[in-house]
Amino acid sequence: MDHDGPPGPAPAYRTARIVVRGEFGTILAAALPDCECATLSGETHVKTQVRDDAELFGVVERLRSLGASVISLSVDP
Fold first, then answer.
1. Which domain of life is it from (predicted)?
2. For residue 55, what are the domain limits?
3. What is the CA radius of gyration of the chain?
4. What is residue 48's DSSP assignment?
5. pLDDT (tens digit per residue) in 3-60
């Protein structure tokens, strides 16, 4: 379907913070190059920018496929 008007506004990005059990630092850095990863006390903290829930849950699914167990997840409004 063609649209004749100007494109809509670019989607707003939100910051997502995900904590997983275990130290996955180098593995996640390679698998999720757009994310910031840090290990702390047996956990890996992942910070990324997402446009919508689908993108967020894509990151979560990628983490799970690597064997990571999500402990917490938060998204800035």
1. Bacteria
2. 14-75
3. 15
4. E
5. 566 676 767 999 999 999 999 878 888 899 999 999 999 999 999 999 999 999 999 9
Question: What strand order describes the sheet that includes 36-40?
Answer: 36-40, 43-50, 14-21, 69-75
Amino acid at 4: D
Residue at 2 is within a domain: no
| Alpha carbon separation from 41 to 16, 27, 53 (Å, rounded) | 20, 17, 28
Answer yes or no: is 8 within a domain: no
| 66 or 29: which leads in pLDDT | 66
Q: How many CB atoms lie under 10 A from the CB of residue 26?
A: 10
Question: How confident is the model at residue 2, as a pLDDT?
Answer: 54
* Token duo for residue 55: 């993108």
